[in-house]
Design a protein that fits this description.
This protein is mainly alpha-helical. Helix content is about 75%, strand content about 0%.
Length: about 180
C-alpha cells in the first residue's frame, strides 16, 4: 500500500489551492472497512450455522447406523474397538455445534457512541459547531466500532477453525466406528 501524504498548514487547512478537507474521505474509508467487517461477521456466522447443521446430521446418521447394525441380530454385541469411537463421535459433534452456537452469539457489546455522548452532540452549542468537529467525533466513534468488530471477527474465525477441526475429528471417529462395526460385525 502506498503511504498517504497530507500537507496541513498551521491553521489546519490544506496547503494546496482549492483542496477540500480530507475528513470526509477518511469517514468513507472507515465506513467501507466497517461494511467489510460486517460482511466477515455474517460469513463466519453462516459457516457456524453450517457446522451446527452438519454436526447434527452426522450425529443422527451415526446413531441411525448404530441402531440398524444392532437390530440386524438379536444377540448383537458391540466389539470393544467400536465403543470408544461410537461414544466419542457424538460428543465431538456436540462440541462442534456448541462452538457454532458461540460464533452466532453476540460475543460482547460493541463499543462506540453511547447515549450521553449522543446527547452532547445534540445540544445547541454542538449543533451549531463546525461540521468538521462533529464529523471527527463520529469518525472516532466509527473507528472504535471498527476496532471492536475486527477483534470480534478474529475471535469468530478462531472459533470457526476449532469448530471445523472438532467436526472433522467427529467424522473420523464416526468413520472409525462404522468401519469397526462392519469389520467385526
Amino acid at each position: 500500500m502506498f503511504p498517504i501524504r497530507i500537507r496541513v498548514s498551521r491553521e489546519g487547512r490544506d496547503d494546496g489551492p482549492g483542496e477540500s478537507p480530507s475528513g470526509p474521505e477518511v469517514v468513507k474509508l472507515i465506513e467501507k472497512l466497517l461494511e467489510d467487517e460486517r460482511a466477515n461477521k455474517a460469513s463466519a456466522q453462516s459457516r457456524g450455522l453450517a457446522v451446527i447443521s452438519t454436526s447434527g446430521t452426522l450425529a443422527t446418521l451415526l446413531l441411525a447406523f448404530a441402531a440398524l447394525a444392532t437390530r440386524s441380530r438379536s444377540t448383537f454385541a458391540l466389539h470393544p474397538d467400536s465403543k470408544i469411537p461410537l461414544v466419542l463421535a457424538p460428543v465431538l459433534f456436540v462440541v462442534a455445534s456448541v462452538l457454532g452456537l458461540i460464533i452466532n452469539t453476540h460475543l460482547r457489546r460493541t463499543v462506540g457512541l453511547n447515549y450521553p455522548e449522543l446527547h452532547k452532540i445534540l445540544t445547541e452549542k454542538a449543533w451549531n459547531a463546525p461540521t468538521v468537529k462533529v464529523i471527527r467525533l463520529l469518525a472516532e466513534d466509527q473507528a472504535k466500532i471498527l476496532d471492536d468488530a475486527h477483534n470480534l471477527n478474529a475471535v469468530r474465525a478462531k472459533l470457526l477453525t476449532w469448530a471445523i477441526g472438532v467436526e472433522i475429528a467427529g467424522i473420523a471417529c464416526a468413520a472409525w466406528a462404522v468401519i469397526s462395526i462392519v469389520v467385526h460385525g
